[in-house]
Write a structure and sequence with these properties.
By secondary structure, the chain is an alpha/beta fold. The chain has helices spanning 2-14, 27-52, 67-73, 84-92, 108-117, 121-127, 142-150, 180-188, and strands at residues 79-80, 98-103, 131-136, 158-162, 168-175. The protein has a five-stranded mixed beta sheet with strand order 1-3-2-4-5, with helices on one face. A hairpin with a 5-residue loop joins strand 4 and strand 5 (168-175). Helix 6 (121-127) packs parallel to helix 8 (180-188).
Length: 191
């Protein structure tokens, strides 16, 4: 987000967003200044978001909302899993189906899944009947790589399903973004 903010602010300065237009300015100068002003506003919002602790480039000012409003927008609550051993231990003790989500802060499709798909009321209701585990591979550590390799995933987003006995449900994986309707069809196959 900081890199995007910097790029947009410097582009706005280059487009003379802060300079007054001459009285005889023609259409392209006005258009360029308009783009510069938009870039400056967007860059400033991203910069404020970074300073406020936001990690979502699509909603950089979300930190301004109160905590209850932020919690309402993110329906699914995942438990983080940090290693293969921890995952296997959680799967052994599972008493209901398990949804394992591979996530990264830099993954735009992950953010879309979180905001559009997981937040859908029908999807959230169905997911509420499952144990929700999440592997955050943002750091790309050796443990992250081992988890990705274990499930033959190149990277996020990837969702693996397990039955109540901790066994992977074959041919029921999600790789990439899916709309709520598509994801509901997948969830219906989880038993």
């Amino acid at each position: 987000m900081l890199a995007w903010a910097t790029l947009l602010i410097f582009s706005a300065i280059y487009l003379h967003a802060l300079d007054p237009l001459p009285a005889h300015a023609h259409g392209w100068q006005k258009f360029g200044k308009g783009l510069g002003v938009l870039a400056l506003i967007t860059g400033a919002a991203l910069l404020l978001g970074v300073l406020g602790g936001s990690r979502d480039p699509w909603q950089p000012l979300s930190f301004l909302r109160n905590a209850s409003a932020a919690a309402a927008t993110h329906g699914a609550k995942f438990e983080r899993v940090k290693s293969l051993a921890e995952l296997e231990a959680r799967l052994k003790t599972a008493s209901r189906p398990v949804l394992l989500d591979f996530y990264a802060d830099w993954c735009i499709s992950c953010k879309e899944m979180e905001r559009l798909t997981f937040a859908d009321p029908k999807v959230a209701e169905r997911m509420g009947k499952m144990l929700l585990l999440q592997v955050d591979v943002t750091a790309d550590s050796d443990e992250d790589k081992a988890l990705l390799k274990r499930f033959d995933l190149f990277g996020p987003p990837g969702i693996i399903f397990f039955n109540a006995k901790g066994q992977e449900i074959q041919n029921l994986r999600v790789v990439g973004f899916q709309s709520p309707e598509q994801f509901l069809d997948v969830l219906r196959g989880v038993r």
